[in-house]
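Hi everyone, sorry if this is the wrong subforum. Our group has a chain we'd like a structural model of before ordering constructs, and none of us has done structure prediction before. Sequence below.
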Amino acid sequence: MTPTRRRPGGAKKTDAGPLFTIVTGLSGAGRSEAAHSLEDLGYFVVDNLPPALIGKLVELADSAGEPSRVAIVADARGGAFFPDLQRALEDLRAKQVAYRILYLDASNETLVKRFEASRRPHPLAPADRMVEGIRKERALMERLREEADLIIDTSNLSPHELRDRVRETFAAGRPEGGLQVGLVSFGYKHGIPRDADLVFDIRFLPNPHWVEELRPLPGTSKEVRAYVRGRSEYEGFVKRLKRLLDFVVPGYVKEGKSYLTIAIGCTGGRHRSVVLADDLAAYFREAGHPVTVEHRDLARGEVAPPPNH
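Answer:
Right subforum, don't worry. Here is the predicted structure as tokens:
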């Protein structure tokens, strides 16, 4: 679960949230794509701004007559600017300036492939040892990651998909004091999403993969939905899960959490998790929460899961 700090309540906000968004994360994880997407949404995006000038930018934006949403792209900068960035954020909190942090993450394997494809060195890589540079940057950025309001794992996202994800998340207005929910269905054999706040494993449910006529169908088909929803195990689990969410979600809202990412996993990510993610989306919408749904592994090729799953 990602720890989230409570934001000051008296600072100026737009209908879509705080005026200021800090876009940060690991080199190669997609900061530039996220910034372009925010720009498309009408944000004033500032890149390469020395952290010491963040306070000045906030003063200028705050003195403007009409509120304008501002996104500031920040990174480790070889480690030189990072302490200044932490001090700048502490100063914003002291002045009760509302802001949110969007953190872009990715697996080491994905980052290595992206740097190799671009033929650019990692900013913290000593003697071109890319893996060591990624390790150092991950350690340096860990505190900022823990403070992030929203973490997006871009390991399995194309640049176009990342832009869509950011637009869907930041374009959706949320009620004051509300919570925006992201639901991700996935397959355990393809890895757990790195950006999930809550993860539910539903591999204990009967698997449509072992029903010959259902195996090639996706979890979005009416046949698979009917099969999964018709199991007594599913009905009992969903009732208990909703009771749990009825208890914990108001606590997240009370603590000032703006974004909640819930990952639901089955073996391949094509059947059971897809059905549950869509059912939970309906539950959250009925409760008044803006929701996005991503079926991460729905289109992946089939590989036979272990017999006990």
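For your construct planning: The longest helix spans residues 232-254. Confidence is low (pLDDT under 50) at residues 1-12, 303-309.
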